Please model this.
Amino acid sequence: MKLALQPFSSFKPHMTDTTAFDPFPFLGGGSRTAELIRAFDWKQTSLGELSQWPACLRAATSLILRSDVPMTLQWGAQGWMLYNDAYCEIAGSRHPGLLGRTIRDSWSELADFRAQVVRRVLDGNTANYRDEHVVVMRHGEPEDLWLDINYSPVVDETGTPVGVLAIVKNTTDRFKAEQRLRIAQEAGGVGTFEWYPHTGRLEVSDQYRRVWGLSADVVVTDSLLASLAHPDDRHTVVGPQRYGLANPITYAEYRRIDPVTGEVRWIARRGEVIFLDGANPRYVGIVMDITERKRSEEALAASEARWRRFTEQMDVKEIRHRNVRTLVKKLELDANRKGKYAGGLAMLAEMLGKSVAQVSRFAAEKPSTRIGDRIAREIEEAFQKERGWMDHAQRSADEVGSIKSDPSAPAR
Model:
């Protein structure tokens, strides 16, 4: 018995129950927006009923409905609107009211912009926008959005553009985060960088360029930074000797030389190592200009050095005696103001807990123009000051009075 074989052209595969009775299988896939498209009365648009849609429109609609990336179709010169589930988040409360609307009555606040784009794309061009700022009414109030949008033409079987496919990405959160970071970097004078040593790629922020004195159009490379670094610090900035370190961009301070003015400025750098795939590291870090801090430190160190040289050269005994004489005069003036009319030596003897005769004997050890060393040492002990009054020669009468009432109080 021989089987009669049907020609291949007349062969019809068995259809499942779920597709046999669906006149519009291009709307399948479980999309919620697809069901809205299926239920929409398209007779009121120039697209006509679903059964009348051309193959290119069906294919483009099927494409966007099966994507989890926000997409829209704007069909024809009027830009009849279709979109997918992922686009609903961008549409906000205007979903599903945008479905089946034209450019003029969908996003009316963006009508001019979208009409211009549709005309351009239907002429066979593409259009791409990055961080495009728009103000839209998504939830009843004006809202700032930043979007990445890629427009491309959809063509029919003759290759003629008949629709516009838009891939949309809401970049608002990223844009605002980058904006906050940029403001913080500029306010704090902190630049950021990412270094990929296995490829030599170096990505830097605008503030990084300002710290290094580089313009926006300059390509930043290791060799460029090496040429700007101070010769004595160049090994810290670049060089193979760093590659063997666990973190070649750990905290460091180094100098750069301005190629135009020749000015030397200080830079501080700190970074960390991040492994991308277990083998090729990425280095992320910050830099800041610390020139003013370095200059302040250098000025302070120079001042301290001058003071040390001055104190080493001064006559300590003469200063000690001069300070004691200053105290005796102040004690006498203080006593006179209080009506005691006592001499300075008498008041000094009272402060030290000694008799006037003892203080006089101390004074007699030297000429009358100088106060004896023994008195100076007694005063130092009373004030608990190892080096005497070298840096407290102009002590006020109030301070002297407080010390007199409490001899054990330390000098301030």
